[in-house]
Amino acid sequence: MTTIHLHNTATRKKQVFTPLDPENIRMYVCGPTVYDRAHLGNARPVVVFDVLFRLLRHEFGADHVTYVRNFTDVDDKINNTALERQKAGAEGTLEELIAERTEETIGWYHADMDALGAMRPTKEPRATQYIGAMISMIEGLIAKGHAYAKDGHVLFRVRSYAEYGALSGRSVDDMIAGARVEVAPFKEDPMDFVLWKPSGDDLPGWESPWGRGRPGWHIECSAMSHELLGPSFDIHGGGLDLQFPHHENEIAQSCCAHPGAGFASVWMHNEMLLVEGKKMSKSLGNFFTVRELLDQGYAGEVIRFVMLSTHYRKTMDWTEKKAQEAEKTLWEWHALAKDVQPSAPSAALVDALSDDLNTHAAITELHRQANVLMAFEAGADLPDSFDADQAYSQFVGSAQLVGLMTPEVSDWAENAYDLSGLEMLLESYRSQAMQTKDFSAVDRLKNSLIEAGVEVRMSKSGVELLAGSNFNPEKLAGLA
RNA sequence: GGUGGGUUGGCGGAGAGGUUACGCACCGGAUUGCAAAUCCGUGAAGACCGGUUCGAUUCCGGUACCCACCUCCA
């Protein structure tokens, strides 16, 4: 078995991954707040941890990995959307409108992430399904002196947890000195954060020992990870922006509620994303959702390829140029390995991923394999040991380990348009022209095909037509 | 102010203290009716200043610039 190394944010080191229980690897990744379409930045952790999920399944067996990714469906942004709809005259109670909004958003999320070839996690809990677990966790924290109730709020007492700040490398005093913390009258200390807050009649709420209210943002992940994975598990992931305060607060809550359990062994954070060198923002006009990209004609597989071409701990720049290069590469690979059944991935590819998810090295390895196949097709001299069938199937199997060239994402490139009629026509024109030396008809047809985005390959062995990535079937009308 | 990250050839983007990264683009050649595709090959790098070393783009220190987080955010 390959040794997997992962970079642990908590120790700032790359470490050998040793499962707590090889029979059941457990991973928790912070999922989306379901108030709107997922934007491109939301997609990065999905793709990153999907690759990790696939690697772990490959190494430990598909039935021995549990991947939990939550939906945050308690949130003021959702409430606001529902309130706006109600004001605009939408039918139904606020609770119903909220449920409607979260349902539709979850549906979008699934559709968009499916398009990127991301496997569904083993479990996708929703915060609203675990309110009871959150309440009992909060009660436990109060009982141990780690939290206190005041004015309908419950707050976590940051000073009661000596390790607070260890994950993000901050000290409580430094942060207070930064003076960018909200000082609320019900807080003992400015850094204390909300576990529970009161809800007015116009907001969703649940009955609790502290009155009708709703949970703070951080407690849900502590409660759900505990319910579904236990007090200690292997990997906790998310975007780097969650490192503080979200994950810091999760650690404080979970470790105080379950002392000695250890909580997550490895913390992994993906870096943020830029668009054409700039932070994605609505004001710059470079903000877009995954759906918008898909609708513009970028295949989900292309988006995935671009994501994988940068290591997850580096800032990724989404550019039009990269997307086009990715599309071209994938198009060639699909043409190369059409209808090939996958076999086991190459050791080099598994090694690349095992080195802290070096997806870029994995792509380099795929290029290497593709180049061998192209050389083979061109009739190059290859070692006697070369086994073509094996090479093709290993290529596809390798690509599939990173979620490329799977049946789920291959439609865009493999929806074959039947060009065989035109192929035969061009072939006959050409063989005539070989006799007459008049190539005008051949050139006319060839240029029309190129104009329509078809790649024309003519060689001694015959004519081959391949639809290119800019193929436009409408332009073929009348050619045959 | 605090914390963390980055700066590699035309572009993207890795690894490794000493031997070609890789992809795309470019250039030369083969091939082709002309092309395309393919094959062969050339060129091109490591922000700046010091230090360690026989040798550093790779380790250490400093400078400059860029970025992110510290507030909802993947």
How many domains?
3
What is the CATH topology assignment of the largest domain? Rossmann fold
Question: How far is the first residue's CA from the last residue's CA?
Answer: 55 Å
**DSSP helix fraction:** 40-55%
Count of separate DSSP helical elements: 16
The overall pLDDT, averaged over residues, is: 88
Shape: elongated
Structural class: alpha/beta
Biggest sheet: strands side by side, in what order?
Answer: 4-3-9-10
Name the beta content range: 5-15%
Radius of gyration: 27 Å
Quaternary structure of the protein? single chain
Named at the architecture level, the CATH assignment of the largest domain is 3-Layer(aba) Sandwich
Q: How would you name the CATH homologous superfamily of the largest domain? A: HUPs
Which CATH class of the largest domain applies here? Alpha Beta
DSSP, total strands: 15
Main beta-sheet annotation: 4 strands, parallel
Poorly predicted segments: none
Care to describe what's here?
With 480 residues, the protein is an alpha/beta fold. The chain has 3 domains: 5-273, Rossmann fold; 320-412, Anticodon-binding domain of a subclass of class I aminoacyl-tRNA synthetases (Four Helix Bundle (Hemerythrin (Met), subunit A), Up-down Bundle); 418-476, no CATH class. The protein has 16 helices and 15 strands. It binds one RNA strand of 74 nucleotides through helix 1, helix 5, helix 7, helix 10 and helix 12. A motif ('HIGH' region) lies at residues 32-42.
Entry keywords:
16 helices; 3 domains; zinc ion binding; alpha/beta; RNA-binding; ligase; Rossmann fold; 480 residues; 4-stranded parallel β-sheet; Four Helix Bundle (Hemerythrin (Met), subunit A); 15% strand; 4-stranded antiparallel β-sheet; single chain
